[in-house]
Design a protein that fits this description.
Blueprint: E1 5-7, H1 10-27, E2 33-38, H2 40-51, E3 57-67, E4 70-78, E5 91-99, H3 103-113, E6 118-126, E7 136-140, E8 144-146
Helix pairs in contact: 1-2
Domain Phosphoribosyltransferase: 6-151
GO molecular function, one term: glycosyltransferase activity
Keywords: Glycosyltransferase, Transferase
Length: 164
């Protein structure tokens, strides 16, 4: 028998991202920059960017997970590393799909901390073991999560050519 999983559909994601935006707005925090952790955080950043009327989006490419529950010893930020020069007054909202161990969020939050005025984190899911407690969380779970953007296998065979 397979392990129970948290299943997020596109429809539920629409509601979840709107509820996250409402949490941010209700808190009084007014980010002027959304910093997305690619890849899962891109969906959250886009949704929150529209809902909070923030057009300034940045992306950090961080490698940590290499498979289902398999990861590198430490997350690493891949080039190009975002340039946060002249961002001392920025109010940054870091977005990701899940705070699992929290290591990726911690890396990006620490990267921003001394370069911006304020930084907060928003995630769709936060797991109990996360070393980062996010300010904005849609749901907490200790289950593995099926996200609509990563449940199905890629449509290419790895060489950029569609499978027949």
């Amino acid at each position: 028998m397979s392990q129970p999983r948290e299943v997020l559909t596109w429809e539920i994601f629409g509601s979840a991202s709107r509820e996250l935006a409402e949490q941010v707005a209700a808190s009084g925090y007014r980010p002027n920059l959304i910093f997305s952790i690619a890849r899962g955080g891109l969906f959250v950043a886009g949704a929150l960017g529209y809902a909070l009327d923030v057009k300034n989006l940045h992306v950090a490419n961080v490698e940590f997970y290499t498979g289902v529950d398999e990861r590198l010893p430490l997350p690493i930020m891949l080039p190009p590393v975002p340039d946060l020069v002249d961002m001392a007054e920025a109010r940054v909202l870091i977005t990701d799909d899940v705070a699992d161990t929290g290591a990726t969020l911690k890396l990006v939050r620490d990267f921003c901390a001394d370069r911006v005025a304020e930084v907060r984190c928003a995630v769709v899911y936060e797991k109990p073991r996360s070393e980062v407690r996010c300010e904005y969380v849609w749901r907490r779970t200790d289950l593995w999560i099926n996200f609509p953007w990563s449940t199905l296998p890629p449509v290419t065979n790895g060489s950029g050519v569609r499978d027949a």
